Every structure is written in structure tokens, then in C-alpha cells.
Amino acid sequence: EYEELLEEGEGELPEHACAYCGIHTPSSVVKCLGCSKYFCNSRGNTSSSHIINHLVRSRHKEVCLHPASALGETTLECYNCGTRNVFLLGFIPAKSDTVVVLLCRQPCASMPSSKDMNWDLAQWQPLIDDRCFLPWLVTVPGDHEILRARQITPSQITKLEELWKDDANASLQDLEKPGIDDEPMPVLLRYEDAYQYQNIFGPLVKIEADYDRKLKESQTQDGIVVRWDQGLNQKHTAWFVLPKVDMGDYKLAVGDEMRLRYYGELRAAWEGVGYVIKIPNNISDEIGLELRSGGKGDRPPTDCTHNFKVDYVWKSTSFDRMQLAMKTFAVNETSVSGYIYHKLLGHEVAQQVLKTQMPKRFSAPNLPELNVSQVHAVKSVLQKPLSLIQGPPGTGKTVTSATIVYHLAKMNPGQVLVTAPSNVAVDQLAGKIHKTGLKVVRLSAKSREDMDNPVAFLTLHEQVRNNDTNVELQKLIQLRTELGELSASDEKKFKSLTRAAEREILMNADVICCTSVGAGDPRLSKFKFRTVLVDEATQATEPEVMIPLVMGCKQVVLVGDHQQLGPVIMNKKAARAGLHQSLFERLVILGNAPIRLTVQYRMHPCLSEFPSNMFYEGTLQNGVSSSERSAKNVDFPWPVMETPMMFHSNLGQEEISASGTSYLNRTEASNCEKVVTKLFKAGVVPSQIGIITPYEGQRSYIVSSMQVNGSLRKDLYKEIEVASVDAFQGREKDYIILSCVRSNDHQGIGFLNDPRRLNVALTRAKYGVVILGNPKVLAKHPLWYQLLMHYKENECLVEGPLSNLQISMIQFSKPKMN
Amino acid sequence: EEEVDVVVRRQREVDPEEEAEFEREFAKMMSESLETRKFERKQVFDVPLPVKRHVPQHAATAEPASTPAAPNGLAFTFLTKRGNKQQLRPLAVPEDSALAIATKNKQEAERAE
Ligand SMILES: [Zn+2]
Ligand SMILES: [Zn+2]
Ligand SMILES: [Zn+2]
Fold this sequence. Notes:
heterodimer; A: alpha/beta; seven-stranded antiparallel β-sheet; seven-stranded parallel β-sheet; 25 helices; 31 strands; B: about 110 residues; alpha+beta; binds zinc ion
């Protein structure tokens, strides 16, 4: 009769039916207090139960049991403090009786427990286990029930949750209505023309922009406490802590704009806008916001500390510039040369060789001598209108790029435009190019002008400031600094003189460096760039790379590595449609073979072997020897002294005593601290060590557990960088500890599933790598199976305490390839 | 008839990308929840043990008929609060759960002494 019920239609299901699948056994469902819908505790076609799926996707946190369940209508809450956040709740038993009670993990269950207490806090067991409510609290429906229920897929769940944000009463049937489920057109490999290109990428950029805006603007927070400070430049800086900021959906960056508002009663309402000058880091959680100097009478309320509100000022600049670049590509025939136009669109074109005089020497002045593969790269780039250079980790990408720029600048008229998606990469490259003796200008966004910059002397604004040929401008600059502002007529004069000075400096430059988005700066709008080099090209979206390209290019060099992490796309629809694929990658797929740099100078040879075989067809050679990468005086218990690598296995047993949440692994955190302490004792300093972990939860747990458990000076542990794989891309450390965080059978290994992420994680270390993880779980993934076999064959797969490591005899079978 | 029914589950279609995304969201929920409590004032929890009503040994054949036959388990009492009033409810905890194992071990240890 169940089937009949279903056939009669949705209307017949009771109110307490799971909003996903329709299961409505009272003991199997709970009511979400965030939206009053019911969800069941079955996994259906997903790895988490329906209720957990819903709570995570909707960010709801509180639930209530069904009145007809065994426990009756019970709201799950901490007995002690009343918090209802189910992600914090767990059971603890009494010491001498079979009584249990719900307590929150923080702070109620984390109090030091005393001997004569009635309750056994150490036995805290989470309410959510293996992404399900404890089955003896909320029954898991039987297979039979699940089979008869509505078969909802993970992607339907995603879409339904999206729909509920606009219409709380929407049902699964509404997904079928036209218009609701419109996926944007996916990216192509080849495009008819630039209009088609724009028609596909335009909407994707818009989706991403709208999403970014919604995300950032929803971050308003009140009740902020402010500490005031005034810098040498007379500007006021507000210091405050945003509880959500580095946890939330977006990362705050230096240079971002925020608005600060006072809404207390001590004085009139006030608001001011400023740029972020400091973001939370290991040392302090404080954010520094330097306020833009407003007019007179707009002094910030520096006498008030409480009742402030902070929100993010979203700017469309970068997205606007992408859209404009695509439009220029479509409508302006001189935006790129004919050859490059067709190449970018994926058309077949006859090979073209540029007529240029090749240099006699390929190394550039004051830069290191190039190796054979680097010379080959430089040589092949100079006469080709479009080239791709693939730089695996540690292969001297920056030196090669700087050398290429040197020759391109010498060989061609006009300025070479050099860009990268990140400011860090631009600064690095600008510094190297400057060494060759070329005239380099680093153009940075107005919002970053006051920030510390390693190549400050190259920045356009510094060059204007130090330009002593224009006496009148110098006077005005001085006056402005002294008075803080100028009269209206002086200000006008100052602006026009500045513009003229900027233009002159840019015109006289050999090379202009800026971020890819920065290439859309109005100060460059009149310039044509015949020659463009884009570094980190695999970390940018196509529309972003188009910005520097559509300024008249005839010769383009893209440098990157499509075996490392690509651009981050926030919106799932846009990512699904292919916005995360870089231009570099598409060109590779189209058959444009990249020139690969093949000699790595970073890793101990034993560390480069696996990545080379796995990600670079075994082509990586070592430019450093084992002895150059053996730290003679560092006494560390490597299983094999000659190969400073180990995979430290920890298995199931610990799982029970761990906090109970899969992403947070106490054993690994504790082992991590032991490895670190051992390294410290061997004379290694904090800046030499990097700890990589894919989960934010584990990151903050490792930081705090090292503070609590570390036996050496606490600030030593504080100085170690603990971050995600993504944060370490493009950088290196002497020692890397990778805490994989075991997951369980239902969840796969998540993050670490991505080969590119694994590649980046494995290639950061110069002297040694320690991997902490559960081989049984990780070996189910083909790539990790290979890695484990590699460690096993080298007798570096071990278990037990650091003081007495034993070769692990664990067996794992080859995973099925799918 | 029930027993011969073959349960054929539809193929799980799990997109690893989507799965990783969800995993990240889940981890974020967890860590955010913890993070917001970092500065919460600590209140010592030490409620005296309730004087229990009689709870049958293999419990939880409780009121509603819709509850499937209670799985064998250790009979616990679940202490909750409604307003300021304590409430006690029977709760069957499976023998192989961490809670039950810990309690059994403790009882055995006590008996051994
Ligand atoms: Zn809800
Ligand atoms: Zn369900
Ligand atoms: Zn509590």
C-alpha cells in the first residue's frame, strides 16, 4: 500500500515526511528548527544522511525529534548551557550509572574533569557520527523503506536546496519546471569566433560575480569591538576581530575594502570606508582597517570602542575588466594578431615563425646561468608567436621567465607586458627582471599603494614620488603630505601633473609588470603591448588571462603548470560549466605541446621520484644531489637514513578515542606535534617547517594542540605555518608534514582525491616529508595506492612511536580502477 | 514474502567534485561551530545523578507503535531538561556502541575489584 500512497502523489505524504525522499517513520525523522521541514536519517544515494545533508547545505543547526518517536518531542540541546547546535552536541555517560546526558563539546564537555565528579567527560561521544545521527537516537530506515522511497540524487538535493533559498515551499517536482534548472552553456574546446567565445564566457563570469557579491555582502557583522591607532601617515587604523572571517565562505585579503559603522549611543552615527592592511594570521586574529581620510568633521569616533558594525564593500572591477576584455576581443580587430586570434579560438593555423635576430647568449645579465632545458625553453619561445612553458615544482620558472622577458624586451620595440594572477608572483618576477638591468615599472592598484612591497622602488607611485625633475609636482606632493589635503585648484593641478608623470615613466619603461586584472587599469588604456608574458597562467581563468592579451599582442608566452592547482571558482554552476579550466590547459588539450622545464632544484631526489613518475611521465631530473639535500646534523628517525621520507600509519583504534568527527584527527594532530618537537630538538627552526592539512578543522586543531601539548617553548610552535595545500602552492619549506586526516568508508578521501592537490602537497619540501594518515582508507584511491606502494617499497611505511618506529606490515589490495 | 524481496539499490552516482565540496562544507560547519565557542565562558557541569525510575533491562518498547522492535541494547536513562524540570527517558544503546562498551568495561572493572 506504500506504493499506492506514492502513486496518489505528494499531497498524501504527511507533514513530517522527509523533504528529500518522503520517508515518514516518526522514529527516523527529525524536524529542522531552521526551516521546520523534516528530514530522515537515511543516506539514500548520498554519503551523509538526509538530515545531515540538509543541515550542512542550508547551514541550519538545530533539530527536534518527532513527537511520536520513542523520546517524544525533544529538542536536542546541551544540558548545561542550552546550546542547540547539533554539530557541537554529544552524549556523556555517568560514571557509576547507566545515565546519559547531552553536552556541547565546547566549552561544557571540555572542562577539566575532577575525580569526584559524577559524569565521565572523557567519554564524550558525538551526536553526529559518520555523517549520520547516532542510529539509536534517530533510527536509520531499513533498506526496504529506502528502496520504496523517492530516489533523490545528490545533484537534485543541491538544486532543491538552492531553490528553497528563494521559495521555502518548493518541492522536488518544481525542479522539472522549465527555467529553474538552466545550466549555463559549458565552455568549448574550439569556438567559431570571438562572439561565440564572449557569449559563453560572459554569462559564466556574471554568475561568478553575482555569487561573489552575494557571499561577501552577506558578511555584515555587528557588535564589533574596535581598538584605534594612528599611523605616521596621519591615517586612522581600526583594529578588530571578526569571529567568522577566516572560517567563512571567503578569505579576506589585504587591500580589500570594508565599511565600518558606529551605531552606539555615545555619539552620532558615523561611517567610514577603508582598506584592509592586516588579516588574521598565526600571531594574532586582528584585522587592521586603515580608514580613508575623509573631509574635515568626519573624524572617526576614536573615543568609542564598542557598538561597531563591519561590512564588506564589494567591487565589480575585476569582473568588469574580464567582460570588457572579451568584448574587445570580439569587436576590436587589432586586439590580438590574426594568428593569435585563431590560435586562441582553437582553429587550425599554419605554424608561424617570427623573424627576429636570435641572441648569442641565452642567459641574461645578473641572473643564474640557465640549464639545458631552460635554454631550450628560452630558445623556442623567442621566435614563436604563442608558447606554453610548463614549470614543474622547483624547476626555475621565475628565472626562465625573467630571462625570456629580458630577450623579448631587447628584441622588440615597445614595452613588454608581464602579468600573473597574484601580486606575490608579480613582485617576485618584477624583482628578477629588474636585476637584468631593464627598466621595470610595477603598476599596482591604488588600494595597494600604501602597502609594504618588496619591490616598492619599482612601483609606479614610488617612481612618481621620487621623480625630482618635475619641481612643481614635487612641491605639491610635499604640501599634500604636510597638510593632508590641497585646495581644489591645487588638487586639480596635482592630479594632472601626476598623470603626466605616470605616463612618461610608463612610456620610458622596458617592462611593465602588474596583475592580470591590473592590466585593465585605466592608466594603461592607451598602451598597446605587442609582447605579453603571463606567469602562473594555469591559476587564472580564461577571461582573466584575456585582459592582458587583448591589448594588441602579437607574441604571447604563457607560463604555468597544469599539473598543479588551477583557479578557484566559488560558484558551482560556473565551475561545472568549465570556468575552472585555464586557457593554458585548453591550449594543451588542443595539441599545443608545452615546453617543459625538466631539472628540479628543490627536492631531495627521493622526494621528486614519485611526483616525476606520476605527474611528469618520469621526465623530472634532479639538479640537486642527495648529499646537498641531507641535513647532516639533523637527528631525525627517518626509517631509512638515506631517504628522508616517511608515511606514518595510524589506524582504526584511535578513531574511537578521537573526537568523533572524521575531519578532525586527534592522533594525527598529536603525532604532528611529536614530529615537530623532534625536529626542534634536532635544531630545525619554525620557519623551516610547513604543516599541510586539507581541512580547516584539523588546521585549527593542530595549531591549538601544539600549543597545549608541545613540550618546548610555546612561541616556537606558534611560528610554524599550518595551512591548506592551496596556501602552499608556489612556495617551499625545508620540511613538510602532511596530515591527511583519516576519513571513513562512506566519505572517500575528499580533498586528497585531486591529483593536482596531491602533487602540490608532495613537492613543497626540500629536505624531508612526513605523511600522517590511514593507509587502509587512503589506499582505496588508485593514486594514493601508488603512493603507499612507493613508500612501502622504500621501507618508509612505518607505525608506532617516533622513538621506536616499526615497518608497517599492513596489507592493502589494488583498488578497482573505474 | 518480505524475505524473498531482493533489495536492489540504485547505482550511487557520486560526483567526486561535489563530494569534496560537501566534505569541505561539512568540515566548515564543524570548525565554525567550535570556533564560535572558543571564548564562551566555562560553566562547570556537575549535575547530581538523578534518582532513576525503574527502567526495564532490555528497554525501549516505549509508547508509540511505530517504533520498530527495539534492538537489543543496554538500557540507559536519558536525562533532559524541559524548562527547569528534569526529565528521564529510557534509551536503548546498542551493545557495540562506544558508550555501551565503556560502561560495560567500567562495570566489569568494578566487579573485578
Ligand atoms: Zn532546515
Ligand atoms: Zn530522506
Ligand atoms: Zn554546553
